[in-house]
């Protein structure tokens, strides 16, 4: 019997009833399954960007995904439908939206553009990344009562050993799952070769990291399996320790090699109760609800010793912690009115948060003098902005409601989907001694910040061709949508610095950022031959940017006063395309392409967050026993940047082409589902730069320090039972 062609599942654009599925459904959403993640050896967003999805990037400067040229708080991440916060403060612009382990995932949905704002609410201006964790039924196949998956391997990108195990069992109508994973390694390699100390160094700082995660689920189904009740508990933690050898230290300076260690700890915990219902033809066809508690905590650490100024130990522990309590839910009802069919989705998101920030510190500074300012040998103690909170404790509330109706006409070949979401939020500061007694000398408590927004969306789809011989389906689509992004707590209330140095201050009167955009395109075919082509154009208003409020001098001689303001109007447009074609028995070709162009309309300059034109092409061969793939990631040069000098200087990145190859083998398919896989990435050891991963402004290190990994090898062994 002939073997079926390989078909990589990359262009599925509709949910299957799982958390987040109905909310991200649309023509600009692509899905990557667990099988595809394994086949491409994807264990990070950077892997996904280099091997599967062109046009996205992971910005390691702020730990966020970049979609359509936007990142940070302008891109939303959800885990099992639960919103992930973008936690930053005036000391550190790095967040933790990637605080999940890829080996715990079942699917990954990537929504490009702001249309998700009509169902997801705040934060989806650039798009959304929605991941779903493994369910027991992902491992238990057919009539089995037990199943499992184990994987281990090594990745030379960061010299990491990793492993994961998941087991699931069924007892009548109740299913159980336990999953655990670990990853231990070092620094992410780059293309640098200078191993000196200081600003000329181009190889990364030495790093040791430990990462682990645990996931537990219980699902109970009704006898007809229309109802599912679930309990989920999850924990993820990662600890990084960095021996700093870059410009912060020097052999004869205040901070010296071997005596300046940085660290970053990220921890996410959650417990959630879920309910899922699906029974077509009932009073309600589908329903989903999640009640959850989530805790996210990030600590930025320094342990050092000062040799010249204020001699002695120097330590910092800056902590941000958010507790969130929330409820998400939606209903779906299908019905007909005359010639029209309707699919109505009605949903809500309710959320309460508690956010606290505190910086602990250790220094050899004496008691502050009566004048309030240190002088002489202890002048540096004026910068001892620690053992304090840089913002009040903040209690947040958010309420969102959305309603959409997919109206089908002409036997459902023409579909019009109007919809809207309404959001209201409030951030309410609470006074604490750690804040009111801080070195920035706050006067009173800042006011609450509250606002509301409507996020409408209208989508039109027409099936030009249905079930044709060569191209199964051809559907043209167009959609218009608006979205918004509420200011972060740091932008509203951050207050860091002090008299005699500088001041970084938030603005509680900030307005939300907004988007207004269109997507027009066509999608066609199926897994054997299919793809999509999209043109998008979006205007943004009230971009929040940090500006110089007061020049250095007076009470703040070191840097003056800086803070966020609503300043910019921006425009981003471009093209995206995906294609896959099983062109012969066991052969598959696939490609992904993205071109994005963005400008600040206030001053007619380019946006430094916009990536260059990119593409991924691959050819794969596979049988039941073995398979192989060769691929290339291509990028054009990026010369369109905002400025050539100063703090807004953008990085001009050269173009590149990197080539990859991977192969897998199942040695005993008749006996055990055991698979061995090896991949070699950037085969020709090309030195290249991910433009959006290079800091804006004057670079603190020599240029090659910011380059991407050279040739790397990843080997994995996977066993499913």
What does it look like?
This protein has a 22-stranded antiparallel barrel. It has a five-stranded mixed sheet with strand order 1-6-7-4-5. A two-stranded antiparallel ribbon has the order 2-3. The protein is built from seven helices and 32 strands. It is mainly beta. It has one domain: TonB-dependent receptor, beta-barrel domain (Maltoporin, Chain A), CATH 2.40.170. A hairpin with a 3-residue loop joins strand 23 and strand 24. The radius of gyration is 26 Å and the shape is globular. The longest helix has 7 residues. The two termini are 25 Å apart. 5% of the residues lie in helices and 54% in strands. This is TonB-dependent receptor. It is a multi-pass membrane protein. Belongs to the TonB-dependent receptor family. One of its GO terms (molecular function) is heme transmembrane transporter activity. One of its GO terms (biological process) is siderophore transmembrane transport.
């Amino acid at each position: 019997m002939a073997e079926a062609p390989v078909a990589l599942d990359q262009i599925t654009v509709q949910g299957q009833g799982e958390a987040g599925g109905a909310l991200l459904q649309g023509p600009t959403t692509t899905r990557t399954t667990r099988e595809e993640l394994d086949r491409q050896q994807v264990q990070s967003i950077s892997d996904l960007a280099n091997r599967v999805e062109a046009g996205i990037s992971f910005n390691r400067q702020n730990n966020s995904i970049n979609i359509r040229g936007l990142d940070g708080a302008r891109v939303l991440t959800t885990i099992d439908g639960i919103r992930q916060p973008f936690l930053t403060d005036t000391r550190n612009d790095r967040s933790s939206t990637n605080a999940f382990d890829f080996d715990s995932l079942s699917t990954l949905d990537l929504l490009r553009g702001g249309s998700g704002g009509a169902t997801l609410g705040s934060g989806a201006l650039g798009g959304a990344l929605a991941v779903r964790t493994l369910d027991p039924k992902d491992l238990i196949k057919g009539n089995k009562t037990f199943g499992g998956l184990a994987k281990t391997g090594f990745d030379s990108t960061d010299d990491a050993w990793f492993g994961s195990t998941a087991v699931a069992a069924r007892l009548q109508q109740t299913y159980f799952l336990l999953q655990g994973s670990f990853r231990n390694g070092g620094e992410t390699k780059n293309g640098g070769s200078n191993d000196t100390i200081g600003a000329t160094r181009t190889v990364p700082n030495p790093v040791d990291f430990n990462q682990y995660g645990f996931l537990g689920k219980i699902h109970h189904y009704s006898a007809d399996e229309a109802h599912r009740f679930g309990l989920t508990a999850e924990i993820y933690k990662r600890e990084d320790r960095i021996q700093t050898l870059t410009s912060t230290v020097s052999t004869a300076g205040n901070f010296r090699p071997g005596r300046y260690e940085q660290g970053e700890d990220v921890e996410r915990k959650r417990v959630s109760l879920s309910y899922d219902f699906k029974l077509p033809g009932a009073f309600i066809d589908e329903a989903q609800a999640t009640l959850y508690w989530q805790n996210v905590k990030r600590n930025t650490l320094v342990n050092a010793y000062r040799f010249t100024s204020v001699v002695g130990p120097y330590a910092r522990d800056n902590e941000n912690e958010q507790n969130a309590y929330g409820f998400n839910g939606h209903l779906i009802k299908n019905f007909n009115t005359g010639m029209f069919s309707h699919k109505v989705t009605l949903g809500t998101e309710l959320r309460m948060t508690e956010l606290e920030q505190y910086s602990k510190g250790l220094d050899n500074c004496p008691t502050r003098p009566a004048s309030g300012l240190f002088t002489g040998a202890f002048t540096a103690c004026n910068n001892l902005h620690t053992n304090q909170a840089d913002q009040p404790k903040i209690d947040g509330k958010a309420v969102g409601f959305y309603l959409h109706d997919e109206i089908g006409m002409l036997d459902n070949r023409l579909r019009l989907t109007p919809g809207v979401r309404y959001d209201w939020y409030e951030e309410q500061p609470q006074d604490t001694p750690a804040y009111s007694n801080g070195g920035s000398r706050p006067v009173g408590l800042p006011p609450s910040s509250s606002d509301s927004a409507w996020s409408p969306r209208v989508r039109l789809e027409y099936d030009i061709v249905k079930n044709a011989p060569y191209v199964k389906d051809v559907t043209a689509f167009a959609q218009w949508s608006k979205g918004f992004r509420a200011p972060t707590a740091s932008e509203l209330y951050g207050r860091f610095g002090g008299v005699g140095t500088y001041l970084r201050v938030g603005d509680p009167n900030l307005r939300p950022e907004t988007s207004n955009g269109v997507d027009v395109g066509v999608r066609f075919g199926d897994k054997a031959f299919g793809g999509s082509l999209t043109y998008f154009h979006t205007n943004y208003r009230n971009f929040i940017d940090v500006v110089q409020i007061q020049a250095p001098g007076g009470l703040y001689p070191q840097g003056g006063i800086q803070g966020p303001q609503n300043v910019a109007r921006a425009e981003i447009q471009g093209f995206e395309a995906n294609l896959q074609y099983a062109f012969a028995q066991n052969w598959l070709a696939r490609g992904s392409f993205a071109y994005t162009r963005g400008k600040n309309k206030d001053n007619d300059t380019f946006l430094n967050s916009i990536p260059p034109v990119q593409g991924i092409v691959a050819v794969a061969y596979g049988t039941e026993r073995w398979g192989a793939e060769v691929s290339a990631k291509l990028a054009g040069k990026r010369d369109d940047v905002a400025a050539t000098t100063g703090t807004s200087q953008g990085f001009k990145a050269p173009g590149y082409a990197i080539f990859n190859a991977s192969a897998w083998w199942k040695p005993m398919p008749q006996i055990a589902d055991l698979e061995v896989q090896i991949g070699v990435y950037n085969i020709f050891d090309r030195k290249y730069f991910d433009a959006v991963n290079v800091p804006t402004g004057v670079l603190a290190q020599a240029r090659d320090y910011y380059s991407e990994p050279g040739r790397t090898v990843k080997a994995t062994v996977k066993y499913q039972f």
